[in-house]
Amino acid sequence: xxxxxxxxxxxxxxxxxxxxxxxxxxxxxxxxxxxxxxxxxxxxxxxxxxxxxxxxxxxxxxxxxxxxxxxxxxxxxxxxxxxxxxxxxxxxxxxxxxxxxxxxxxxxxxxxxxxxxxxxxxxxxxxxxxxxxxxxxxxxxxxxxxxxxxxxxxxxxxxxxxxxxxxxxxxxxxxxxxxxxxxxxxxxxxxxxxxxxxxxxxxxxxxxxxxxxxxxxxxxxxxxxxxxxxxxxxxxxxxxxxxxxxxxxxxxxxxxxxxxxxxxxxxxxxxxxxxxxxxxxxxxxxxxxxxxxxxxxxxxxxxxxxxxxxxxxxxxxxxxxxxxxxxxxxxxxxxxxxxxxxxxxxxxxxxxxxxxxxxxxxxxxxxxxxxxxxxxxxxxxxxxxxxxxxxxxxxxxxxxxxxxxxxxxxxxxxxxxxxxxxxxxxxxxxxxxxxxxxxxxxxxxxxxxxxxxxxxxxxxxxxxxxxxxxxxxxxxxxxxxxxxxxxxxxxxxxxxxxxxxxxxxxxxxxxxxxxxxxxxxxxxxxxxxxxxxxxxxxxxxxxxxxxxxxxxxxxxxxxxxxxxxxxxxxxxxxxxxxxxxxxxxxxxxxxxxxxxxxxxxxxxxxxxxxxxxxxxxxxxxxxxxxxxxxxxxxxxxxxxxxxxxxxxxxx
Length: 651
Ligand code: GLC
Hints:
Layout: H1 5-21, H2 30-58, H3 64-80, H4 84-95, E1 107-110, H5 112-116, H6 126-132, E2 136-139, E3 143-144, E4 158-162, H7 169-181, E5 185-190, E6 194-196, H8 200-206, H9 210-213, E7 218-219, H10 223-229, E8 244-247, E9 252-255, E10 262-264, H11 270-286, E11 290-293, H12 311-327, E12 332-335, H13 341-344, E13 355-357, H14 359-371, H15 375-384, E14 392-396, H16 409-414, H17 419-430, E15 442-444, E16 454-456, H18 459-463, H19 465-471, H20 474-493, E17 497-501, H21 546-562, E18 573-575, E19 582-589, E20 592-599, E21 605-607, H22 609-615, E22 620-623, E23 629-631, E24 636-638, E25 643-650
Parallel strand pairs: 1-2, 1-17, 2-5, 5-11, 11-12, 12-13, 13-14, 14-17
Antiparallel strand pairs: 3-4, 6-10, 7-9, 8-9, 15-16, 18-19, 19-20, 20-25, 21-24, 22-23, 22-25
This protein binds alpha-D-glucopyranose (GLC).
């Protein structure tokens, strides 16, 4: 598209649209004026970008201008309904747009039903969240869903209704406010790739309404599905093969990338873009500050491709981002793209997703824990940890999903690792099949065609606690505690926001009871989605309990993180420690420089002076973990699984 053409048309369209959308703000009184002024400033700032994206995506439709007007009307209506406290937050965040890069940021994620049964019960736990140091809380999907199997809430039947077993939208909105007042930002999923087949749009489609059939990808016969299918991968090969489902009500095939009841939305239809924008802004007005964009890689289809990570998928997110900047400026996006690392990074930009999961760091930490070597971790992180300076990684060890070995094959080959064999080794290791393995993981989604397999399990069970407890072996228990703390050291000191999967803070073990529930038995991810409870404060009499140890040691590290300005922002430089077992990186901010070194082996490991000199010219350090001072000149010695956070004291 000619670059000169867009600005002029954008301007013309906006001047035509403004008088048509403004009346949504009500009679032209003082309130109207105030509402309009802020809105207009942002609209004019973002408009050309939004217009350009929408023209690219939908400009070929004969009724494009109609859709443009609908989209803007949605934005203006949503702004007029935005609660005052959120508008104040918008202003604060516009003043301090990089607030999320603070060393104070620590996230937690939980399932409401598993954690507190009901939404109404969650506020009771805020003191626990605060004591743990959380400033960000992600509630796993809690919307209305089909009864029975619903992919853990990821098949949404109504974005504006909470699952009645959990609570109500009013309770969510009240909770968002309370959390905000306590300094905790609420994060929620925006399950944007698909709805459940019980969503009203799907129901209308099933009843034969062609407008709603166009909300999804539906086909009268197999000819197009077969052409698409030839290039697609199976996401849940254990439960089903192929990406299309026959719907007898419609007498049509529907695109269902994930489960057969999760219908992919058709974003090539501007009505879908607008409808989903409305749901997004609704959630923003409920008080959600961060939306986790679920399964973003899949939202655009193109024949002849694998239909993942298409350029238009990025454009759709960017257009949502521009709309959010206009109508809910403090709303941020976190991308959930669990794809090849080259692709993960493409979703990260201030104008797309400001936050992103860091699946590569997660997977490679487990890889290094199994191999006791950091060569792949080192090689990959050197190249791939850097992102746009106004964005941040979300660093995690475990989440509600499986672990997939998503490293780049070339990264592996560069350090002498055969990627296929290595994935096989890791799968054997983490399912406890290989000799000497400490892990108790479960296989997830074995694909016999490709040999691919992923791993389920809790942090503690994967790191060895379950096996050590079963063996009643204190040394092994001790080694597990050290391994877990080592991983935590990296999660809390690497550039980005650490995210704790709640339960892991006290060493939750795998829970195999899901195997007797027919709605869950086929999905091993339920082994780490458990009702087990422990909460500091309830078990005060037993300060010796292992749970306390896990919890206290994590809290101490979190408190330490919050005191170290060097851990602000994303700057992180990985360096060669000269020892294949030691992973080292430098963090620096506001004149503070930290050298972080992590020993992945169960043996004492030296780091030579020469390597330390290469990393820093400091002559003295304080290890902020143990409080001991270290004089440069003799190299370093790290105990098994030890980690050092060395503050450079003099140069
Ligand atoms: C995301 C979720 C996962 C879910 C899938 C389909 O990857 O994390 O749990 O199964 O999307 O919605």
